[in-house]
């Protein structure tokens, strides 16, 4: 399998004269082995070599395989890119009053407008690079690797997140898988590689150890498995890249080929098409200028038209169509249940805010309906939900609580308008829409049997809250248990696992988070560094949860764990918001502490079967409710 890796000896040499002095690479130590895929080993007794360094990308390779008469570039694309960059530099030099270089004289035939356009493009590139660098600096103080290592944390595996890149094709990537990565323990002026094994996995991130270090963790390092610098074993041989053992251990073996063959025979590596799969899984069908219907963040009972402004890792920044300065926006994932195709509200009878814009703006177009997440079809012809029925529901304005709720309106296609008892506006402007199969609504008694604090109606004084008394007092009936979603997938989450999660109260933020409770398919998400009152109940298949390393992979900004000072400043402003219930996805309410215990409704046992609650040890437990005959 690794016949291309030849043994390294100090008495083997190969040299050839360089054609131009400017192309000579720096002399290398004669005892430093460089393994090549053509079976030759290069050493440098005379300071000259048969190797060349690409002047564009810095790749080291065999000189005879390089392009141009002077063998200065490893590929045609590098040659062209170098030429293009030289032109930009010459334009800049001319605008600054410097004499043009020889390579830039061709630009003298171009009009001034073309030169200025090229210079403007060059300046824009510099600005983008500065923004990228600034974003990286803001996260400089936080490292997932250090955070996990120093606390012995574990992270949720990528397979838990079917909506994330590689979530459905991660395969059997695990500890001991071998990869080829850049060798940072090297004094060479060019980029070289060596083989490393995965010591620990944390989402997309892997703790790697160079082959040859055995049990020595001294040079262990973290790397994103889906990054551009990690490759399957054999990639260097196929790409003409040199494999150079780390300087710290180069003295340990005289025959590196024999060492590699012994270590790698039978070992697993990444699939050869792994990078291609990563690229394909990061292609998103939603594009800027697409129009959608999305929940109105100020009035949850209705939807509005919004336009896709940008797409990052499948997350959409939507700008409400009537926003003139394009600052009135809303963030959500493309698979979010909060967005719909144009015309959806009218088709099911949902309230909709008509836009003052009479016609589409130039370039805007309706998103094809097939791109949206599909909901499960339901049969509403038989026994079904009715207005006035009681249930328990996650409050979308305070996701840390599950509240007493009422079905206020039954829409088409299985959608329901729901209100939180004791907190509803007179005009119903704070009703919210859930589908009948939504994992965010539950039958009466769900919280009690699963030992979750149920938030009673605001102003209700008969505590502890009892469903039997409340139904009798309000003359209401509970929604039939059999109408609720009882599917529980084998999601793979465990209590204590780390992940990156959207703060749904401020959905543009993605934070370091932990799974603290698991109830069937329901997860309690805690934001590291914050108080428990900011926790959120989220479904295990929510598109607002991501593996560790997702932000790094997609270029999104990750919010590190909050420090004490930032918590105090945030809490100070939040206390003011808690006095009144907000109509937006911002602000939190304090949970009311209830003493929960089992009770009888209409004289019959109406509770979940025991043994399926709080599945910290097995997220795939069945979800059953006892039915009355």
> How far apart lie the N and C ends?
66 Å
What is the percentage of strand-forming residues? 15-25%
Q: From the alpha carbons, calculate the radius of gyration and give it in angstroms.
A: 31 Å
**Overall body shape:** elongated
State mean pLDDT (0 to 100 scale): 79
Provide the helix percentage: 10-25%
Structural class: alpha+beta
Strand runs, count: 29
Q: Largest beta sheet, briefly?
A: 7 strands, mixed
- How many helices? The count is 11
What does this structure look like?
This protein is of the alpha+beta class and 629 residues long. It is built from 11 helices and 29 strands. Strands 3, 22, 23, 24, 25, 26 and 27 form a 7-stranded mixed β-sheet that branches. Strands 9, 10, 11, 12, 13, 14 and 15 form a 7-stranded mixed β-sheet that branches. It starts with 50 loop residues before the first strand and ends in a 24-residue tail after the last strand.
SSE layout:
Blueprint: E1 51-53, E2 60-62, H1 76-95, H2 112-138, H3 144-151, E3 154-155, E4 178-182, E5 193-202, E6 205-210, E7 221-224, E8 231-232, H4 235-239, H5 256-264, H6 274-281, E9 290-296, E10 299-312, E11 315-320, E12 329-333, E13 339-340, H7 344-348, E14 351-352, E15 365-366, E16 390-395, E17 398-410, E18 415-420, E19 432-435, E20 441-442, H8 446-449, E21 454-455, H9 467-474, E22 497-502, E23 510-519, E24 522-527, E25 536-539, E26 545-546, H10 550-554, E27 558-559, H11 564-577, E28 600-601, E29 604-605
Parallel strand pairs: 3-22, 9-15, 10-14, 17-21, 23-27
Antiparallel strand pairs: 1-2, 4-5, 4-8, 5-6, 6-7, 9-10, 9-13, 10-11, 11-12, 16-17, 16-20, 17-18, 18-19, 22-23, 22-26, 23-24, 24-25, 28-29
Biased composition (Low complexity): 563-574
InterPro entries: Mbt (IPR004092), PcG_chromatin_remod_factors (IPR050548), Znf_FCS (IPR012313), Znf_FCS_sf (IPR038603)
GO cellular component, one term: nucleus
């Amino acid at each position: 399998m690794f016949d291309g890796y030849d043994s390294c000896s100090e008495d083997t040499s190969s040299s050839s004269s360089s054609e131009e002095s400017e192309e000579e690479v720096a002399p290398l130590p004669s005892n430093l082995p460089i393994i090549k895929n053509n079976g030759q080993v290069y050493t440098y007794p005379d300071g000259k070599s048969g190797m060349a360094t690409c002047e564009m990308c810095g790749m080291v390779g065999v000189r005879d395989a390089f392009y141009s008469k002077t063998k200065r570039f490893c590929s045609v694309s590098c040659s062209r890119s170098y030429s293009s960059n030289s032109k930009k530099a010459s334009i800049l030099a001319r605008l600054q009053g410097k004499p043009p270089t020889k390579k830039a004289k061709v630009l003298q035939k171009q009009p001034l407008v073309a030169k200025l356009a090229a210079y403007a493009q060059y300046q824009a590139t510099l600005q983008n690079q500065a923004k990228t660098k600034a974003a990286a600096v803001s996260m400089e103080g936080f490292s997932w690797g250090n955070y996990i290592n120093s606390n012995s944390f574990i992270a949720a595996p990528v397979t838990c997140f079917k909506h994330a890149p590689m979530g459905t094709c991660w395969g059997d990537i695990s500890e001991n898988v071998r990869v080829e990565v850049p060798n940072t323990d090297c004094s060479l002026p060019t980029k070289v590689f060596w083989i490393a094994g995965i010591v620990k996995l944390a989402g997309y991130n892997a703790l790697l150890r160079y082959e040859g270090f055995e049990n020595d963790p001294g040079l262990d390092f973290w790397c994103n498995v889906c990054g551009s610098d990690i490759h399957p074993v054999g990639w260097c041989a196929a790409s003409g890249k040199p494999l150079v053992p780390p300087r710290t251990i180069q003295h340990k073996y005289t025959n590196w080929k024999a060492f590699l063959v012994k270590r790698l025979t039978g070992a697993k590596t990444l699939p050869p098409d792994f990078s291609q799969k990563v690229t394909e899984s990061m292609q998103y069908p939603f594009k800027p200028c697409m129009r959608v219907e999305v929940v109105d963040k100020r009035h949850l009972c209705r939807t509005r038209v919004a336009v896709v402004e940008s797409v990052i890792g499948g997350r959409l920044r939507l700008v409400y169509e009537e926003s003139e300065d394009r600052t009135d926006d809303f963030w959500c994932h493309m698979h979010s249940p909060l967005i719909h195709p144009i015309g959806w509200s009218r088709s099911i009878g949902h309230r909709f805010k008509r836009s003052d814009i009479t016609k589409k703006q130039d370039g805007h177009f309706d998103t094809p309906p097939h791109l949206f997440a599909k909901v499960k079809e339901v049969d509403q012809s038989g026994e079904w939900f009715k207005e006035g029925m009681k249930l328990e529901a996650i409050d979308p304005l305070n996701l840390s609580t599950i509240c007493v709720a009422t079905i206020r309106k039954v829409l088409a296609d299985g959608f329901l308008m729901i209100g939180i008892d004791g907190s509803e506006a007179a005009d119903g402007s704070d009703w919210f829409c859930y589908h009948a199969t939504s994992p965010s609504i539950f039958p009466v008694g769900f919280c009690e049997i699963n030992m979750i604090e149920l938030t009673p109606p605001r102003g209700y004084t008969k505590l502890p809250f009892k469903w039997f008394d409340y139904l009798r007092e309000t003359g209401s009936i509970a929604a039939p248990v059999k109408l609720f979603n009882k599917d529980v997938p084998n999601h793979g989450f465990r209590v204590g696992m780390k992940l990156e999660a959207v703060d749904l109260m401020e959905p543009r933020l993605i934070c370091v988070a932990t799974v603290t409770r698991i109830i069937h398919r329901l997860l309690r998400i805690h934001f590291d560094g914050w108080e428990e009152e900011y926790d959120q109940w989220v479904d295990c298949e929510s598109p607002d949860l991501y593996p560790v390393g997702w932000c790094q992979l997609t270029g999104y900004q990750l919010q590190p764990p909050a420090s004490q000072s930032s918590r105090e400043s945030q809490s100070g402003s939040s206390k003011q918001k808690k006095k009144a219930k907000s109509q937006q996805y911002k602000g939190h309410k304090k949970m009311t502490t209830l003493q929960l215990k089992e009770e009888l409704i209409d004289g019959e046992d109406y509770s979940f079967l025991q043994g399926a609650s709080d599945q910290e040890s097995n997220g795939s437990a069945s979800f059953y409710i006892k039915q009355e005959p």
